Amino acid sequence: MTVTVFDHEGPWTEEEYLSLGETSQRVELFDGSLHVTPAPTPRHQNISGELRSALRGPVREAGLHVLEGVSVRLRPGRIPIPDLVITGPINFDEVNVEASDVRLVCEIICPSNAATDKVLKMHYYAAAGIEWYLLVEQENGTLHLYRRQGRHYREVAVTKAGESLELTEPVRATIRREELLP
Fold first, then answer.
1. What is the pTM of this model?
2. Fewest CB atoms within 10 A around its CB: which of 98, 107, 109, 168?
3. d(C-alpha 63, C-alpha 89), whole Å
4. 3 state DSSP class of 68
5. 37-87 pLDDT per residue, tens
């Protein structure tokens, strides 16, 4: 992939981005630019796995799906790879999950890349119409739940030490902050 990326001139199209195929890095497309991030840390992956585990039962009961690290097509030329999504029925053989199928999107905030999750992706997810956005602070497990209001999100819940997040939508689930941390 390296030669392909560095020899490329001008903005990337969605077709060019998709032609990269599967890579070992997280390569996202934002309006003609590639955004490459290193592999997640073990702490990050532990939080992601515990969160998926906590949501698995309630998500299944609701007839939905919970997926980690899949490409979500927000609009043509804008394809991030969120840490976790809850979706409605989807085609599991498609390369991308469409934003219209995503009920909740979650990002686990990496301290070195916090602005991307707190500003850029938050804006893009809201603009795409994704109703719920969950941010998890990797350092301490604090959960921030946002609900879309128009083209923006409004924070509706924040957990503190010893607290749990009680989701009522898109599924009913309890997420215990301390259980996310290694």
1. 0.91
2. 168
3. 8
4. strand
5. 888 889 999 999 999 999 999 999 999 999 999 999 999 999 999 999 999
